[in-house]
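Request: Could I get any protein with tokenized structure?
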Amino acid sequence: MKILLDECVTKRLKSHLTEFEVFTVSDMKWNGIKNGKLMTLCIDHNFDLLLTIDKNLIFQQNLDKYKLTTAVLNSSTSKIEELVQFMPSFKAQVARLEKHKAYIIDK
């Protein structure tokens, strides 16, 4: 599974997702790109999932338009100490997540 970490997610989370092919927005040189364009780029570059903490993305985008899964970690901070707490739940659910949908991931 190919995952993009959104700009609002610390790149340090990448080391906690070693079983996946993970890239950051910085790795892709996509810094500053807005969500709709970012989601289109994800599809164009064969990403399966966008991992973010931006809860507004769910309401701002027409997810039916994008053949992409969006997972939103239900965190109030991007600190690595907080985000790693979501990894067991994320990893347990990720295989069941569907394209064209967004999921809120709780601890």
